[in-house]
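Morning, I've got a small favour to ask if you have a moment. I'm working through a protein record and want to make sense of it properly. The fold is given in discrete form, as structure tokens running alongside the sequence. Can you walk me through what the tokens say about the fold? Thanks so much in advance, here it is:
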Amino acid sequence: MKAVCLLSGGLDSSTCLGVARRDGFQCYALSFDYGQRHKIELQAAASIAWHFGVREHKVIQIDLRAFGGSALTADIAVPKDSLEQGTQGIPITYVPARNTIFLSYAMAWAEVLECSDIFIGVNAIDYSGYPDCRPEFIAAFEHLANLATKAGVEGRTLLRIHTPLAQLDKAGIVKLALDVGVDFGLTHSCYDPDREGHPCGHCDSCLLRQKGFREAGLVDPLEYQ
């Protein structure tokens, strides 16, 4: 069985790739150079792809900075020490339409590979501020994908989108990552690292990661600023 696995190099997507590999899939990793604030996560994605021995790792270049609207794709400051903002509406680190675009590319590659399975590391429990991480979005896109492809219309494949992290909090994701063999030191989660790639320790993503390791009773090997 083949699977296309969206891979950012972060803890969640790395764990998702590990789950796909554990479950016996031949994994094809898909990452994006989309105009994000830094390229360090792409280096992490390459390292994780190598670690798990994927069949192929593609990095697609697109330019979401052309639209901006996010602290990750525009000259907008990344919020710091404000984890509670994730419960007060959609955070400024949300990138408009990002998962819709990423899943569209994954759908295209899956059709070419004659593959029925896509894995994405969305999580709706610990940090549900992003509208394109919700289960109802994933279900709607899966329905769309089976209407939008030649393979789906001809009945050759029924595309399934797997979200194995959807109901886990961050501590649960850390524990699952350990179980499936993620090398935590290869992952990168920070929205605003320094030039050497050290995570800031203060953005929402860093705070959630630290919280997850703490509650899982494990030590995060990353060296923070």
Q: What stands out?
A: The helical segments are 11-22, 40-51, 98-113, 135-148, 150-153, 170-180, 204-216.
